[in-house]
Amino acid sequence: MPQVAIFMGSISDEDKMRPCADLLTELGVDHVFTVSSAHRTPERTARLVSEFEADGCQVFICAAGLAAHLAGAVAAKTIKPVLGVPLTASAFGGMDAMMATVQMPPGFPVGTLALDKVGAKNAAWLAAQILALHDESIAEKLREAREGFKESVEKAAQSL
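Structure (tokenized):
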């Protein structure tokens, strides 16, 4: 049963979103990583949300560029948290996707992260934090990771 579902609008987004899936794996979070488009496959998107939610999925992560309607389409079909990762895919440098992801109507929120790989990683961290509210093993892994971040900064400072 996936705890987190990661949707990409296109297979061409995989290199930007792979860090999200890799981090969830590292944290021991069961997830599914797939392609579904708000525009090209709206029925598939709605069906997957319904199926994953019925299987116990707790968080949806959606990544898309350009019009970037995927996160909103998923938010319209679930009351579970939806995290959006806008992707750079046009001459607008990702601002088009950022605005489409962040500007949701009241009652259908999407927690919008940063662009591209940084947003992908932070989407995984945030999904894990949401799950950690009710899963102490994930919470402990997050605490350990934070301690590792602290140690790496202190080690870097000492090397200067």
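Residues 14 and 33 are 9 Å apart (CA to CA). Helices lie at 14-26, 42-54, 70-75, 95-102, 116-132, 136-159.
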